[in-house]
């Protein structure tokens, strides 16, 4: 796919998503407008069940929005117009998605797990594994490349999932609670990796989180409630983290 210069990594307008039919139909996302800027770490916060995972799943192309959606542009592509097959190929090339469940393959070593996005892109196994070991070292697991996922703690598995999302240097990283299982030291390590990604040209990081420890790493914090974006804070030298977020996000 050709590289296109776009002002936003993602832009949605009037995004709607419902689940179910008839009387059991629930309207989860209600005319959501949102931009994810390149160069930013954008954080999405909000109470449980307000629609955060649904929104990032649509941005990552694993869920389709309702037809009544005005715009869904990710890295310059209109996902509404693409088939699920085309979206799957687009995601493999361009998006690193870190799920709440780590989705590691239990029968593969850590190095093999982290190699998967490169193998999908046609990188040869030896080169893929070499790169995978380099990225495992970045998340502090360089000496565990041959271990299997079930030999690791939850926090270590989370770092493997992060390594797998970074290994193919995707243009957009989308993560659901990437630091939930991490102690302060590893949380800081992971956020520094995300900052490096966001600083690279034409890259962006979008994080769903309840973890107030990482709010100081955000350039933008969007708050959701009941299927809508209700507040957006841009944070920079002249706009510090708002007082209510400095003291954590309370549900
Ligand atoms: N596949 C589905 N079928 C039916 N309802 C769903 C489905 N996925 C999500 N929902 C509903 O959509 C709403 C939003 O869920 P979502 O997982 O997006 O919330 P969230 O903000 O990410 O919550 P949390 O912080 O607890 O992870 C919830 O009411 C949930 O039950």
TrEMBL record:
The keyword NAD does not apply. PROSITE patterns: ABC_TRANSPORTER_1 (PS00211), ABC_TRANSPORTER_2 (PS50893). CDD domains: ABC_MJ0796_LolCDE_FtsE (cd03255). Keywords: ATP-binding, Nucleotide-binding, Transport. Residues 10-251 form the ABC transporter domain. One of its GO terms (molecular function) is transmembrane transporter activity. SMART domains: AAA. GO terms for cellular component: membrane protein complex. SUPFAM superfamilies: P-loop containing nucleoside triphosphate hydrolases (SSF52540). Transmembrane segments: none annotated. It comes from the Bacteria. Belongs to the ABC transporter superfamily. Macrolide exporter (TC 3.A.1.122) family. This is Putative ABC transport system ATP-binding protein. It comes from Prosthecobacter dejongeii. The lineage of its organism: Bacteria, Pseudomonadati, Verrucomicrobiota, Verrucomicrobiia, Verrucomicrobiales.
């Amino acid at each position: 796919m050709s590289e296109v210069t776009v002002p936003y990594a993602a832009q949605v307008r009037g995004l709607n998503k419902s689940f179910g039919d008839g009387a059991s139909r629930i309207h989860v996302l209600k005319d959501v407008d949102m931009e994810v800027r390149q160069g930013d770490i954008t954080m999405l916060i909000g109470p449980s069940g307000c629609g955060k995972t649904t929104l990032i799943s649509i941005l990552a192309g694993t869920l389709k929005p309702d037809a009544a959606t005005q715009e869904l542009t990710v890295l310059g592509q209109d996902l509404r117009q693409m088939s699920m097959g085309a979206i799957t190929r687009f995601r493999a090339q361009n998006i690193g998605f870190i799920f709440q469940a780590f989705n590691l393959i239990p029968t593969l070593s850590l190095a093999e797990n982290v190699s998967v996005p490169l193998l999908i892109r046609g990188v040869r196994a030896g080169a893929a594994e070499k790169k995978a070991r380099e990225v495992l070292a970045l998340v502090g697991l360089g000496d565990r490349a041959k271990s299997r996922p079930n030999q690791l703690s939850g926090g270590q598995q989370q770092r493997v999932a992060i390594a797998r999302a970074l290994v193919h240097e995707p243009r957009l990283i989308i993560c659901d609670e990437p630091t939930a299982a991490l102690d302060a030291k590893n949380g800081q390590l992971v956020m520094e990796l995300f900052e490096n990604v966001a600083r690279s040209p034409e890259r962006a990081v979008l994080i769903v989180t309840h973890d107030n420890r990482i709010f100081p790493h955000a350039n933008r914090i969007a708050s959701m409630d009941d299927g809508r974006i209700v507040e957006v804070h841009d944070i920079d030298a002249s706009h510090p983290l708002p007082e209510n977020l400095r003291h954590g996000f309370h549900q």
